[in-house]
Amino acid sequence: MSIILSWLDYAQAVLQQCQLYLDPIFPCDIQSKYAIRNTHTREINGRDHKTKYTRMVCLVQCQCGSDHTDRHQPSKKPQRPWKDVGCGFWVEITSVHLNCISGMPEHCVECAAEVEMIQMPQVPLHPVIWEHALQLLHDGLTIRLVEKECNKKANELFGNSVGDEHACYHLEPYESTSLYRTIVRESGLKQWSKTVENLDRWFRKDDPQPPPGHPNLGDNILYYQPHVEGETDQFILMDSTFGFSSDWLLLFTLVTIDDRNRGIPISYMLFSVRQQTKAVHVDYNGELLSRILQAWKDGMGTNAAGEPFKARIAITDNDLKERRALSETWPDVLLLLCLAHTWRAWGNDLNRYLCIIPKGSERQEVHSHLGKFLWKLCIYYYMHTIHSNISKKQSIGGLAFLAYLVPYIKSQSLWHQWSYTGALEAASTLGIPVGMMPCTTNHLESHNRHLKESYIQAKLHGRQLPQADWWVILLITKVLPDLF
Q: Are residues 362 and 295 in the same domain?
């Protein structure tokens, strides 16, 4: 059945007769059996080829014909307020203003007999509160703060009323899903699109197609390697921080320090890991990281003198794979060890070796002596002390720890990376006072924590983390502009 309508008034009369709703002409009644399944919009030209109109195609279905098990993501129990009796009612409304209604506008006998809902419906949020909630989410507020601010605004606009027959005035928990989906759609991501397909479509070499609203997205990418079955899956990728995406993804960040001692990120490297991996945070090796760092170095280009980008000093944690990759990419780089990570590693081993000493003053005395000894960063003080005072301790635990520590002190390639001597050489290389040399990777750790707390928390849907494609858009369009 198809009805072609020439007059807007007649079209509205048909909608009213069928008890259909079409916002904002006929707002939805919360007891309505109808639900809008999907809506598509596109711009069309007017007769003068100058005026622009928006054409909308809206599919409406009776909820008594909605099977909760037959959908993209089946649910275990029905979420619709009306019982499913297999009603075949559906209507497709096509409009520039409103000019075509087609479908099967007839209910079955069983549907007509259903006059009471089986559960309370999810009442839509009032449009004014909805727009306010979207703006707050765009501003980076968490959903809890958004809920608080929206309820405050609702009280200002509508007093103590909780809603009417068309909408509620207070933000309910179930509305968070629709809000996040709206934000994702605004970013150009389709709701059911796959992450790997999106990234490949945006950044592939041949005919890249960036998402709507982000035509220059590819200009921010120095290197992209898609996964090719049988070709790229022999590589194990790199970890720097994880737990920021719902996809199996790792983020490696390069940070430099400006003249005001602030950490400035200069590169974000996103890594996908193997699907069969059990521990995401350890699925990487130095060989692939070297390859990625070399690609980033090449992407940085050259300076005015034609010299390639060169890293002179680098500080990392105790990860040998990271250090190997940096050394292979820049053979002359001076590598330093993060003092905080070194101290933590020593502290863990110190506690392990001293556990044979009974708790109390005896263990605390040895722990205090060794702790003060470790904190002194002069290599000559180390060598003098190890042969005099501390080595004469009668505690087996203390001697065992010193035996563990001796190789780190005797090997110049090891002690030079965390000692004061290494900091002096690095400061001399850069031509800065040694007091300006960072001894830890705290700037990087702080930045990673800032990413997770300031950006991820606002994008959490329940406990669900953002997907990788959404993260790429967020880093380029939100994180980097906020920093620079």
A: no
Residue 118 belongs to a domain: no
What 261-269 contacts at long range (C-beta under 8 Å, 24+ apart), as own/partner pairs, is 261/436, 262/443, 263/443, 263/444, 263/446, 263/447, 264/483, 265/447, 265/480, 265/483, 267/222, 267/296, 268/475, 269/238, 269/240, 269/296
- Evaluate if residue 261 carries a pLDDT over 50: yes
In terms of pLDDT, which residue wins out, 455 or 35?
A: 35
Domain count, the chain: 4
Residues 290 and 322 placed together within one structural domain of the fold: yes
Beta partners for 271? 250
Q: The tokens of 176 are what?
A: 């968070």
- Indicate whether 122 belongs to any domain: no
Which residues on neighbouring strands pair with residue 26, listed in sequence order? 22
Give residue 416's identity as a one-letter amino acid code.
H
Q: What domain range is 154 assigned to? A: 127-186
332 in the same domain as 255 = yes
Residues 346 and 331 in one domain: no
Average pLDDT over residues 124-128: 84
What is the model's pLDDT at position 387? Answer: 43
SS3 459: helix
Write the DSSP assignment of 242-309 as a string of letters.
Answer: -SS-SSSEEEEEEEEE-TTS-EEEEEEEEEE--TT-S-GGG---HHHHHHHHHHHHHHH-B-TTSPBP
Report for 34-43, 66-75, 249-258, 362-371: range of highest mean pLDDT: 34-43
Q: What residue spans of 71-174 are helical by DSSP H?
A: 109-113, 127-138, 143-158
Most confident of 19-33, 95-109, 406-420: 95-109
Is-cis flag, bond preceding 81, omega within 30? no
Instruction: Establish if 270 belongs to a structural domain.
Output: yes
Kindly state the percentage of the chain with pLDDT values over 90: 0
> What pLDDT, on the 0 to 100 scale, is given for residue 372?
66
Is residue 98's pLDDT more than 60? no
Say if residue 243's pLDDT is above 60.
Answer: no
Mean pLDDT over 469-476 rounds to: 76
Q: Please tell me whether residues 317 and 460 are part of one structural domain.
A: yes
User: What angle (nearest 5°) sits at the alpha carbon of residue 181, between those of residues 179 and 186?
Assistant: 95
Residues 6+ apart with CB under 8 A from 234: none
pLDDT band at 381 (very low <50, low <70, confident <90, very high): very low
pLDDT at residue 377 tops 50: no
Share of the chain above pLDDT 70, in %: 67
Residue 371 near residue 405, CB atoms below 8 Å: no
119 assigned to some structural domain: no
Nearest to 334 by CA among 274, 416, 252: 416
Q: Are residues 367 and 410 both part of a single domain? A: yes
SS3 content of the chain, % helix, strand, coil (to 5): 45, 15, 40
Whether residues 413 and 451 share a domain: the answer is: no
